[in-house]
Each structure stands twice: as structure tokens, then as C-alpha cells.
Amino acid sequence: DCSLWRSAHKNRINMAFKGEDHLDSLPLPVQRMHLIQVDSVQRWMEDLKLMTDCECMCILQSKPISIEKDEQNELILSSQYSTCDNLQLLLKRAWIISTELTRIAQKLEKNRWQRVHSMTVRVNCHVRSMINEYNTFTRNSSEEMHQFEKLLIDKCSEFTAFTERCIQTEDEQILKSMKSCINETLTTIAQYFGQLIELVLTHEAQNLLRQIELSDSVYVTESAISSLFSLTQEGANLCRIIAKEGGVVVLFKICRQDCFRCLYPQTLRTLASICCVEEGMHQLEKVDGILCLADILTDNTHSEATHAEAAAVIAQITSPHLTFTQHLSSFLENMEEIVTALVKLCQEASSGEVFLLASAALANITFFDTMACEILLQLNAMKILLAACSDKRIVDTPYSRDQVVTILANMSVLDQCASEIIQGNGVQLLMEMLFERSSSGNSAEVAACERVQQKSAVTLARLSRDPDVADAAVKLSCIPRLIKLCRSPTERNNSDSVLVACLVALRRLAVMSPDGLEDSDFQQLVKPRLVDSFLLCTNMEESFV
């Protein structure tokens, strides 16, 4: 759960808010893979660059010249990535092998024996190449690792021999009896492969963390942290490995040494990635990570980049959709100074990215503890956030507006909030947010726009208990816009959550200003039970709008 953070930082925050673990949802190095469609000979030429230990004729014979329909989508490595570092090459190999094993299982179900055999030979080659390549650059491999290497190679050879016998017979009964053995062997290969990769990645994480811990060189430490960050982007399992090997402890040691100040942003960015998993959060608590983050945020001698990355860590560990934040008892002890520093960062942000990270941290904190809303009110945060929204250079995306309206929605439960909203022209802003639409059509951006519409309607509904706010909303024509959102599915991107929020807001405003609705709107959207109005609107055709 937690979860895609940056496309720059924007994807990281959006994913955290959607409750997606940005690491769980990422396959190994799929984002760095280039998927291309080529004929069989060219595919062989591409693969050959990564199979230096395989007999060329073996590879050639395993790839039929005729192109089957399903082969058009075969995944291969683009040659432009041949210069990537050793670890990334290993991960690419691992991803290819994992994909091929899945495909073998699919072909086996369809009794495509010729394809099963050719793919088995290819997996055999990839496994051998991966092991040979890794052994050329690794140091101090464990005996356990060598044992799994031998087990995997032996099992792959056995698997190839099995499938070769299958293509040499046409007896259906023999093939049927062999199928269970092949399935069992395939399962064993997948288990050995997974265990070997786990050992390899643990070994590499240990090496990187040892470099970071023992080196006094800024250059060596920077290089190791950069490699460690790359590992964290390859999935939640890698983050768990790094956390279990003491990665959080080692990185916070860097953040407590002045000689490594220039590395703080990079170190904090890596910490934010590791802390998407429960093991990382527990480690953070054990090393007083919250106190360290508070010290960094409140230290004015640090750069804005350092403050922004510290805010990113806060946003990650306080995500309302994570189920393992309850143990962060030390956060409450430091919450006031953290919130104060984040409000200041929002106010002084020099870019949209910095504002996004700071506001996302604040938004998550308002979910984390209700006391945060009272602190924000005391700090005039409402005024600061509303002013930032008028600066298109700072609040420049639906993601940023999503954070702002989240804070407004959570603060709107306080009675004192209404006067702040009116003074800061907040009702006008909420009205504008009801018109939020995606300009790119990107699914993440569309989802952010839906959240902006929903939360702005929720905020209006809560604030409209105050007659002054309700009056301002009516004067700004909020009622016609809410009716439009209820009646037109395309206006709300067919979102049920937006529909419910708009119906509630409309009913609240109708109580304060019943003259603003036509009779048909009142009869359909206000008078019935909420569920009946909801069903009416969800079944409504566009022609009725």
C-alpha cells in the first residue's frame, strides 16, 4: 500500500495520498526496459549481447524463424542500455527471467510444447549468464549463494531436458503424464530463483551500507547512497531488505554529521523511499528519526532542498493510508515545531515542487492528529495557503491543489475556520476548485482532479453551517455548479465520490438559501433521501443535462 513519489516529486505525493505504496506497485526495472517489436533474427542479435557464455547455435535453434502472433509482444532489452552498471544489469536479467517463467507457465497450460521448450532454453541461458555476470563483479559471495546457484543451474538443465523430450513425442498420454513433472520443476526453479535473488540483493545492500558507514569520503558516500536509492526504486521487497540490514540507522547517521551536509537531500530522499515499508518505520522510531527530522526542518542554516526532502520523509511516514504509523509516539512530541517549520516552508517555497512536498506533509499530519488543525489555525496557515493558491508559479498542478484543499477540508471542522475562509477569499477558491479538470488526460492527474472536486464540495458543506459562508457561496453561484456536477457525469468524470460530496453540499446550501433552486432540482436532488438522489443521478443520461 503506498505504495508511485516522483515524476519529479509529484508522483510520490500523489501515490502516497492514494494509499499506494510507490514501491509495491513497481515491478523490478520495468521502467527502464524498452519494449520493441522485432523479427526473430534481430531478437536473437539483441539477446546475444547478454549471453556471452551460451552457444550461439543453441540460441538460434531455440528461436523459430516463423513469427507466431503472440511472439510480437516478446520483451527484450534495448541495446542502448548495454552500458548500464552491473547491478542494474542483474535486475534486468532477473526481470526477464521472471517474465519468461510466467510465460512458460501460460504456454504450458495451452500445451504449446514447442514454445515451452524454446522459452526454457532461453531461460536456461539467461540464468547462466546472470550468474556468470554477477560472479565477475561481486566480492565475498557466501557459500549459501553458491549452493543456490548450483541448485538453480542443475534444475534449469533438468527442465530443459524434460521439455526436449516433450517435443520429441506426440503421444498425448505421455505428454499429459509429463506435464505435472514439468509444473513441479517450474515451481522449484521459481523458488530457487527467488531465493537466489533475495540473497544477491541482500549481499549488495550490505556492501553499500558498509561503504556508507565506513567511508569518510563525500564522493564514495554519495556514490553508495545513489546506488542505494536506485535499489529502493525497484520494489517494496528491496526496501524491506535494506531496512532489515540497518539502512535507516546508517542513513540517519549521515544526517547527523555536518561534514556530509551536502548529501542530506539525497540521503533524506532515500530514507523516504525506505520508510514506505513497516520495517523502515520501526527503524526510524528506534533511532529517534522524528527528532532528527525536526532538527533539520527547524535549522535555518540548511538549504531549501534539504528542508523539502525532510518534508517528503514526513509526508511518507504520516500517510493516512498506511496502517503502521500508530507507533510514532515521538511524532506527537515534536509535532508543533514540525508543523511550524512546514508552514514556513510553504510560505517561502521557491518552486511548485517544494510547496507540493511541504503541503503534502501538512495535509497528512491533519489526518494524523486533530491537534494539528488547531496549530495551523494559530499559525495563520489558512491565509498562507490561500495566498499561495493565487500564485500559479507555486500552486501549479492539481496535485498541489489536492494538498491545499485537503488541509482546508480537515480544518473546516473548527468553528473559527469560517471567518478565516471569508477573509482570505477562500469561498471563491473552493468554487474554482469545483471546476478542476485534467488538461493531459493522465490517469493520475484525472484522479487528483476528482479528489480536488470532492474535497472542495466537502469543505463547502462543512463551512456552510456558518450563514456568512453559505451566503458567499450562493452569491458566487455555487448552487448551479453543484447541480451541474450532480446531473452531468462527465463534469465529475463519472466519480461517485464527487457526486455524494456535491449532493451533501447542495443540501446544506439549500437549507440556508432555498430560493436558489428550481423546483425540479429540489424535488430530485434535495427532498429525497440521499441514496435515492444518488441513484437518480448515477442513472441519468447525458441528454437530460
Structural account:
- GO terms for molecular function: cytoskeletal anchor activity.
- Residues 93-545 form the Protein inscuteable homologue C-terminal domain.
- This protein is an all-alpha fold and 545 residues long.
- It is 68% helix and 0% strand.
- It contains 27 helices and no strands.
- The chain is flat, with a radius of gyration of 28 Å.
- Among the domains are: 81-203, Four Helix Bundle (Hemerythrin (Met), subunit A) (Up-down Bundle); 216-287, no CATH class; 425-544, no CATH class.
- Residues 1-38, 52-84 and 541-545 have low confidence and may be disordered.
- The two termini are 38 Å apart.
Question: What is shown here, in short?
Answer:
With 545 residues, this protein is mainly α. 68% of the residues lie in helices and 0% in strands.
Main sheet record: none
Could you give me the name of the CATH homologous superfamily of the domain at 81-203? Nucleotidyltransferases  domain 2
* CATH hierarchy, class of the domain at 81-203: Mainly Alpha
Fraction of helical residues: 55-70%
Find the count of extended strands (DSSP E, 2+ residues).
0
pLDDT averaged residue by residue:
82
Question: How much of the polypeptide forms β-strand, as a percent range?
Answer: under 5%
Q: Class by helix and strand content?
A: mainly alpha
What is CATH's topology name of the domain at 81-203?
Answer: Four Helix Bundle (Hemerythrin (Met), subunit A)
Gyration radius, rounded: 28 Å
CATH architecture annotation name of the domain at 81-203: Up-down Bundle
Per DSSP, the total helix count is 27
N-to-C SSE series?
HHHHHHHHHHHHHHHHHHHHHHHHHHH
- Euclidean distance between termini CA atoms: 38 Å
Domain Protein inscuteable homologue C-terminal: 93-545
InterPro entries: ARM-like (IPR011989), ARM-type_fold (IPR016024), Armadillo (IPR000225), Insc_C (IPR045789), INSC_LBD (IPR031938), INSC_LBD_sf (IPR038205), Inscuteable (IPR039921)
Domain Protein inscuteable homologue LGN-binding: 36-80
Protein name: INSC protein
